[in-house]
UniProtKB/TrEMBL annotation:
Residue ranges: DNA binding: 26-65
Gene designation per UniProt: rex
Chief location of this protein within or outside the cell: cytoplasm
Chain sites annotated for binding NAD(+): 100-105
Function according to Swiss-Prot or TrEMBL: Modulates transcription in response to changes in cellular NADH/NAD(+) redox state.
Presence of keyword Membrane: no
Summary of subunit composition and partner proteins: Homodimer.
Record-given protein name: Redox-sensing transcriptional repressor Rex
Family classification: Belongs to the transcriptional regulatory Rex family.
Compartments where located: Cytoplasm
Source organism of this protein record: Streptomyces wedmorensis
Stretch list, region Disordered: 219-264
Low complexity bias spans: 225-238
Keywords assigned by UniProt, alphabetized: Cytoplasm, DNA-binding, NAD, Repressor, Transcription, Transcription regulation
Domain CoA-binding: 89-190
Length: 264
């Protein structure tokens, strides 16, 4: 797995640590569920449990947002949704392109959770001429020859790579050259990007391998007659901070990308 080296410091310019930033989506997901149930306020303990985070950590995280809640009442759900959305840059629309519209790309294109969170799928791009013009999830696929024009015309800054691993670096290079500065990589390969470009990667097989490790350990402990380890809690993988980021200049070498779903 990538070590997550990038050019950014562990603390953002506005003073919010990367570890806190990584937990904000977890809070937002829990708060959105509360909002949908018209719950007006929530205590730090309740919200921490819903987000799978320690409540002291939650209070510390929210202090960076200037949100302290009201004693005996808790946090205002709607206001916190607004605050976190604003902090994450979700109060604006982010056009996204997906490159590689095979099994995975098509599934991502049809995923309603992007649009509902402010990520508009602006274009679907594939190198297969047979797919050009065919609608996937209601969006016509465009040929990769037009990638640069599409990025430019739609003002896209976020690209999703769902191509075979062998072409992912080349696709990444084209996206970056065209002006994309954030990449979500699903291809099982480590991408090199220049400074100023953020890469997050998702690899579900790595998550399964980590679960396999824990399964093996549990089985070993049971066989050894030891007490079973603590179970039952969802590990907030995405809340784990990225590894320290280098501040060196130049193109980020291999491992310059960061896993979007990080193991604990
Ligand atoms: N991260 C994960 O958890 C996860 C899960 C499933 C698949 N994957 C990976 O996602 C990728 C896609 O998997 P899939 O099952 O959808 O494969 P697929 O073969 O169904 O689709 C790949 C698509 O990419 C297109 N393509 C090939 N070269 C291209 C290029 N240069 N530019 C644009 N498009 C190009 C192909 O025409 C095809 O439509 C693979 O790398 C796979 O290993 C990752």
């Amino acid at each position: 797995m990538a070590t997550g080296r990038t050019h950014r410091p562990a603390t953002r310019s506005r003073g919010i640590p990367e570890a806190t930033v990584a937990r904000l989506p977890l809070y937002l997901r829990a708060l959105t569920a509360l909002s949908e149930r018209s719950v007006p306020t929530v205590s730090s303990e309740e919200l921490a449990a819903a987000a799978g985070v320690n409540s002291a950590k939650l209070r510390k995280d929210f202090s960076y947002l200037g949100s302290y809640g009201t004693r005996g009442v808790g946090y205002d759900v709607e206001y916190l949704v607004y605050q976190i959305s604003r902090e994450l840059g979700l109060t604006q629309d982010w056009p996204v392109v997906i490159v590689g519209i095979g099994n995975l790309g098509a599934a991502l294109a049809g995923y309603g959770g992007f649009a509902s969170r402010g990520f508009r799928v602006a274009a679907l791009i594939d190198a297969d001429p047979a797919m050009t013009g065919k609608p996937v999830a209601g969006i016509p696929v465009q040929h990769s020859d037009d990638l640069e024009k599409i990025i430019h015309d739609d003002g896209v800054s976020i690209g999703v790579i769902a191509t075979p691993a062998g072409v992912a670096q080349q696709v990444c290079d084209r996206l970056v050259a065209a002006g994309v500065t954030s990449i979500l990589n699903f291809a099982p390969t480590v991408l090199s990007v220049p400074d100023g470009v953020d890469v997050r990667k998702v690899d579900l097989s790595i998550e399964l391998q980590i679960l396999a490790f824990h399964e093996q350990r549990k089985a070993g402990e049971e066989a050894g007659g030891e007490n079973a380890p603590e179970t039952g809690a969802e590990t907030p993988a995405a809340a784990v901070p990225p590894a320290p980021r280098s501040t060196g200049g130049g193109r980020k070498g291999p491992d310059g990308d960061v896993p979007a779903v990080m193991p604990a």
